[in-house]
Specification:
- The protein has about 90 residues and is mainly β.
- Helices cover about 10% and strands about 45% of the residues.
- The chain has a four-stranded antiparallel sheet, covered by helices on one side. A four-stranded antiparallel sheet has the order 4-8-7-6, with no helix packed on it.
- The longest helix is centred in the middle third of the chain and has 10 residues.
- The protein is globular.
- It starts with a strand and ends with a strand.
């Protein structure tokens, strides 16, 4: 059974950070992490949807084939103890 995950990553080759949602593509967080690493991305965080306290992002629709890009910004994301920010988009975790 596939689950809903949110990942924040950094792609050093282009100096961009991003937030992607996976709603139905992967069954485990490590699968999403492995996918990002295979594409030369640095994984900043991967959370189950239940761990996320929304700040300014809504839940994405079910999509078993794609990752849903939620935010992209030049440079690295910022992460504090429980808040992750990419450009003007941020979310907090439990």
């Amino acid at each position: 059974m596939s689950k809903y995950f949110r990942a924040t990553g950094y792609y050093p080759k282009e100096d961009i950070s991003f937030i992607v949602d996976s709603n139905g593509k992967f069954a485990e967080r490590w699968q999403l992490g492995a996918f990002l690493v295979q594409h030369n991305c640095k994984v900043i965080a991967i959370n189950d949807y239940e761990q996320i306290k929304e700040v300014n992002l809504t839940k994405a629709n079910l999509d078993k084939q794609h990752l849903i890009i939620r935010a992209v910004a030049q440079g690295e994301s910022t992460k504090t103890a429980d808040k992750i920010t990419v450009g003007n988009t941020s979310y907090t975790t439990n």
